[in-house]
Write a structure and sequence with these properties.
The protein is α+β, with helices and mostly antiparallel strands. The protein contains seven helices and 17 strands.
Length: 347
């Protein structure tokens, strides 16, 4: 078992900004698959040998699954889901919940059951406590994902983070937890993302750059929380534009629990810049979050204008997660120019 870090010729001070995301377990593979994986490793190693950029980054750390390779398809399913309070059974400082061992196992089984139904090639997850419990969840799946990632973010009250699972090779993961958000009256100077804006670059043709978010909740003062979501939305727009300038060939996708409605003032910067994939859904079907006797549309997937041409289908997984979360998963299917390598399982 090998821990991969962002190593290179940089100084130790520079390397300290890098964080190992996942682990690579070497499992039996043969022939051409081994050769292709080896070449991929060389490419990603050459691309990410250092950490000279301000955001915290990590090169891909991977675990090659032993299941059969899925027949090649250029259509990929991308999903997002707030799994609600995926905590472990360890009593850490500044953590909201501590599950008993039996509660943890039940939570893992129920959450894994939903993910098995989703069968997404990439899934963004919100409200995951740490990398260890993410690994536990992955192991509970009927067919674990070969790539997974989480970088500890800014939530010091509940200790929840954003994370991902992927069948598609991940070229780079960038944390924007330290990003200074735009100034706004009523929001403290140098305000940061509530959790993180995690930027994940997938090895596809064309490349996909995914931004995973979990914005400030609506608890407390409505005006104050809306101001905070507004500057987080403005910051994501800045990051999407910067990524598009740096990687003009890539398609940008923003997803996650944004904790507000599509028509809200707080999310206006995002929804005026990007394409809402659920914009044609009737209001009564657009609900993704269940609360008491009502519901709201808090979970979103937005595409850059270039990415819209590749969109094939969208789905809100109504009542798929009633046992384990108050949020419904959401997903899109994207038709790529070429099938990505090393995807596992079959639909």
């Amino acid at each position: 078992m090998l821990e991969l870090e962002c190593l290179g010729p940089n100084s130790s001070a520079e390397r300290s900004r890098c964080a190992p995301l996942t682990q690579w377990v070497s499992l039996p593979i043969r022939g051409r698959l081994l050769f292709r994986l080896f070449v991929l490793g060389l490419l990603t190693g050459s691309l990410f040998s250092g950490c000279s950029q301000p955001p915290r980054t990590s090169s891909t750390n991977e675990r090659q699954a032993s299941q059969a390779v899925r027949p090649e398809s250029s259509t990929v399913r991308l999903a997002s889901w707030n799994v609600r309070n995926l905590f472990d059974s360890v009593d850490d400082a500044n953590k909201d919940d501590v599950l008993s061992p039996s509660e943890l196992q039940l939570k893992l089984r129920q959450t894994a059951g939903v993910l098995d139904k989703l069968d997404a090639d990439f899934v963004a997850l919100e409200e995951v406590e740490n990398l260890d419990v993410l690994k536990m969840l992955n192991e509970a799946l009927s067919q674990p994902y070969p790539f997974l990632g989480l970088i500890e973010g800014n939530d010091k009250t509940r200790g929840i983070d954003v994370a991902y699972l992927s069948r598609i090779p991940v070229e780079q993961t960038i944390s924007h937890a330290d990003y200074d958000l735009p100034d706004r009256y009523g929001v403290s100077r140098n305000y940061k993302f509530s959790r993180d804006c995690l930027e994940i670059r997938l090895a596809t043709e064309p490349p996909l750059t995914i931004f995973v978010n979990h914005f400030k909740s609506q608890l407390g003062s409505k005006k104050a929380s809306a101001n905070k979501r507004r500057v987080q939305a403005e910051a994501v727009v800045e990051l999407v534009r910067a990524s598009a300038r740096e990687h003009p060939e890539a398609l940008e996708i923003v997803m996650g629990d944004l904790n507000d409605e599509p028509e809200s003032w707080a999310l206006e910067p995002l929804f005026s810049e990007l394409i809402d994939v659920f914009k044609d859904y009737p209001t009564e079907l657009r609900v993704t979050h269940r609360f008491r006797h009502g519901g709201s549309s808090l979970d979103h997937i937005l595409l850059s204008k270039d990415a819209q041409a590749y969109l094939r289908s969208v789905q809100i997984w109504k009542d798929a997660a009633l046992q384990t979360s108050d949020h419904d998963p959401v997903s899109v299917e994207i038709q790529l120019d070429r099938a990505p390598a090393f995807k596992t399982t079959s639909r």
